[in-house]
User: Fold this.
Amino acid sequence: MSSTQTTTLAESQTPGSLSVRTSTVPLIPTGALDKYEYVDLTSVLGREYPNVQLSDLLNAENADELIRELAIIVSQRNVAFFRNQDITVEQQKLLGNKLGILSGRPKESGLHIHPTTQPSPELGLEISVITSLKDKKKEWENELDISQFASREWHSDITFEPVPSDFAILKIHTLPENGGDTVWASGYEAYDRLSPPFAKYLEGLSALHDAKKFKIYVEATGNTFQEGPRGNPENVGDTLQAIHPVIRTNPVTGWKAVFVNKNFTKRILGITKDESDITLDYLHRLITENHDLQVRFKWRKNDVAIWANSASLHNVTRDYDAHREGNRVVSIGERPYFDSSSKSRREALGLKKRIEF
Assistant:
């Protein structure tokens, strides 16, 4: 790796430097959203608010208090769901910005512009259109290179950026009669399933994340590539590579999470390729083969999901042929870091450990 990338990695683990939060003290919930009905969908992750309109939260007199609380809840529960929302595109952008700002993101960060996003007078560059109409095969030179395992698409959003996402908001407005569910997984719970010696080993490692497939896609379609800045001054150029810690501390909760994914994480640095491949395969299997650290959401028209990219992964279920489309806002957070004094989710909540030593 280049000396520039090495320096960036060192800086990413130094609180107070560019694109790192001024405070890494976890946020304390106030209970501001407790008056609203909710259902925790599993014991590990996922919360649904069946009767809350996000537009009402934005328009409330204490909007900042409510949205700060929402940022904490999403960070703790990984993902929250809201049914049949009337939130507009501009309100969606506003909410995405507020979630990041009110939870303490660096001042340099804003909303992400995806490298493949095309200019739109209606939506602007800060909305990513998530659509089944996109020709996914253009990301590969040969369709025989496309894995037939659905697990290939597990990912956290835009981890190929030096400063990746903290929160994402997706509103699905067009969907098939059935199919197209999305599954989320908890990076916190994945960490809690590591033995202490193995966790300690991983905490000292960093990994390369890469998304050159997006450059290939843009060149194949003749579209415009967004050179940036893409939501942060550090997210520029067409390299689409970044180095991040394998185990990350979510600054909102102070909890440790596994921070690798099948889609973008290519190699663990500082060990042999064989060791990297074996380690990544184990971590991917830990996430994809444990349905008890996952939650599955069946979309209905105009539903909204908000998730914490700093501690969760997700994967769409491509079991449909009909049109499926929605608008996504991705907020940029801080440069990922690992804090050795941070705790696991189970430790922080006083829950029984998965593995006793």
Summary: Residues 1-16 have pLDDT under 50 and may be disordered. The chain has one domain: 39-139+148-349.
